[in-house]
Design goal:
Layout: E1 5-9, E2 11-15, E3 19-23, H1 26-36, E4 39-43, H2 52-58, E5 61-64, H3 89-105, E6 109-112, H4 114-122, E7 127-128, H5 148-151, E8 156-160, H6 165-170, E9 174-177, E10 184-185, E11 192-197, E12 203-208, E13 215-218, H7 230-247
Parallel strand pairs: 1-4, 1-5, 5-6, 6-13
Antiparallel strand pairs: 2-3, 7-10, 8-9, 8-11, 11-12, 12-13
Helix pairs in contact: 1-7, 2-3, 3-4
């Protein structure tokens, strides 16, 4: 059986501050190929280069990756400030309508970190620009120093809704994850179900209520060490199964709510 094609949302970067590229971390491609069992295909995140319709036709599923630039606050009705950080308006313009279209079709979608936030914004939700500044919240940002292993190390528990989609997938009500984000969900969007939270209450896992297909989002980075981490293997494995079903012409049953 041919491997399903998984579109990986790339990000815009400047090499040496002058050469523009679209890129995504190799660990994303490795997780898709080696754990999900798909063909990783990098998508240039610019609607001037690709259309949502073309992507829906050519891909069997989509991985919305993390990124340094944040979703522009205009997209959720907030005035931008320096505290909101860097932006990638071309990615916003492509991924937000892509999310809505994939959800409408039931096309498989796995959202990570910024992608998790994109799904919430696409569905009408809002974001906190800096989680660590909120009363009672922890610093969820990537450690500024150390090796990649140290930066992506597992750092906190995520408590999952008992018998919810994530708990059933993971076979546990608690999982241990890394954390490398500054922003997070403020108000959940329409049909967004928060299915997992960090110890400080920060939303960490979401799915779409009454969605006809696979759409799961996590605020952490499961692509790191995905082949060896049981939480990552379960998530990418289920995503790969959904993409294979889509590629074969099957349309999965509605995701069971808790």
């Amino acid at each position: 059986m041919p491997r399903p094609v998984i579109g990986i949302i790339g990000n815009y970067y400047l090499i040496n501050d002058q050469y523009p590229v679209h890129a995504a971390g190799r660990m994303n491609s490795a997780a898709i190929s080696q754990v999900a069992g798909g063909i990783p295909m990098l998508i240039p995140s610019d609607p001037d280069l690709v259309s949502v319709g073309e992507l829906l036709s050519h891909c069997d599923g989509f991985l919305l990756t993390g990124a340094r630039p944040n979703v522009h606050p205009d997209e959720y009705g907030v005035e931008p400030t320096e505290a909101h950080g860097e932006f990638d308006r071309a990615r916003d313009a492509l991924t937000l309508p892509l999310v809505r279209a994939a959800i409408d079709r039931g096309q498989p979608l796995l959202a990570v970190c910024r992608g998790f936030q994109e799904v919430n914004v696409a569905m009408g939700g809002t974001l906190h620009h800096e989680i660590r500044d909120l009363p009672g919240r922890d610093n969820h940002r990537m450690p500024p120093d150390g090796t990649l292993e140290e930066k992506f190390a597992l750092r906190h528990i995520v408590s999952l809704t008992p018998d919810g989609p994530f708990a059933r997938l993971m076979g546990a009500d608690e999982v241990l994850t890394n954390t490398l984000h500054g922003q997070g969900i403020d108000v959940a969007g329409d049909r967004i179900v928060i299915d997992g939270r960090a110890p400080d209450g920060t939303p960490e896992a979401i799915y779409i209520r009454d969605n006809p297909g696979f759409c799961m989002g996590v605020q952490w980075h499961p692509e790191w060490n995905a082949g060896n981490d049981p939480v990552s293997r379960a998530l990418f494995g289920a995503f790969g199964d959904a993409a294979r079903a889509w590629s074969a012409g099957e349309r999965p049953a509605r995701l069971k709510s808790a």
